[in-house]
Structures are given as C-alpha cells and as structure tokens.
User: What shape does this take?
Amino acid sequence: QQQVKQSPQSLIVQKGGISIINCAYENTAFDYFPWYQQFPGKGPALLIAIRPDVSEKKEGRFTISFNKSAKQFSLHIMDSQPGDSATYFCAASGDTGFQKLVFGTGTRLLVSP
Amino acid sequence: EAQVTQNPRYLITVTGKKLTVTCSQNMNHEYMSWYRQDPGLGLRQIYYSMNVEVTDKGDVPEGYKVSRKEKRNFPLILESPSPNQTSLYFCASTPDRGQWGTEAFFGQGTRLTVV
Assistant: This one.
C-alpha cells in the first residue's frame, strides 16, 4: 500500500511556466516532508523540506505548500527552466526519522525550451 | 568530498548467481539504507542499519541480505538473484536517526539486470 501518493506521473511545462506536483499521505504521525530531485544517472538529492506547523516554505523558485487538515502537500516550481527537468519525489517520515522515510512514486518533469 | 559510493554502477548477471553490491560513505554517518527504484513504484526501502551490527528490514526485504561490520560500509547481498530483482538500487546515509531537517545522501545508483 502506497503511504504517500504522488501525482502526476509525468509533467511537461514550457520554460517560464509553473510546475506543480502534488502529494497526499495517510499517516498522521508523519512530521517531516522533504522533496528530492533526481537527474538522470544520479541519485536523489534533497531539494526542500517542510514541517507540518507551517503552511508554506519557499527557497528561491521552489515552494512547498502544506495542508495539514487535508493531509496534502505540493511542490511549486516558479519560472520553470530546462535545467529543472528531472524526476521529483515527495517523501514523508514520522518520529522514527530517516530509516522510515516513505517516498512517493515520482514525477518526471520536462521543461521545454 | 563527502559522498556515498556504490559499486558496480552497472551489473548484468544470471539467475541464481550470488552477487554483492558495495556501498561506502565517508561522512561518518550512523544510518544507512538500501532502496530499489522501479518505474511507477518510486523508491522502496529494502533494509536499513542504525549502526554497526544493527540492521532491520525495510518494506521489501525478501531476497536480500545486508551486513554492517564497519560504520562506513553497508553491502547489499543477493544470494540467489531472480529476474524480479532487476532494478535500480540506491544506497543512502544520514548522520543520525533522522530528526527533522536531516538530509539523506544517496549514492549514484547500481543498475542491476538479472537474466
């Protein structure tokens, strides 16, 4: 059973547009929600993370929006660039920390020039 | 340079032939994990280790073994590989039990094909 559901599976956005990836979770014990970015041939790397006591976190062009009551969180990439083309994974973990980090199924983003 | 190193990067093997994928980290991290990545399924945890000689099953441990005899190394062992273990494998490490804000560092991946 997928504990973190991610959509869409793939996304094509024009350069300069906004990319939006959504995730939903079931386990209310989750208290850490990171996003990982993976380029072809590379391992995932931490992009940005949020805690459930805030509704939004912004780092440059990347923003996480968090809705605790709906158990949903999303990644927004503003002014999307071809260099943002990658696979994005949302994830979640609870008080057991990293060893129980649960990943979504991934979204392959292609930003067209 | 801080890194997690996996070897080999690519491996083609035959059903039933034992193999080991090595993982080494130079950051003195306590926690290490193995994941497999499959299309449409994301990253699924196979095994993790909280310290030397301390390991536990993840979500998909069947058909895999691990050992943690040294802090820096966490090899993944497939004693009798089968085609359904064809996948992309990642090793990851983190400096502590993963309190909020702790980053997981991933290796470059090992693409395994079992024929």
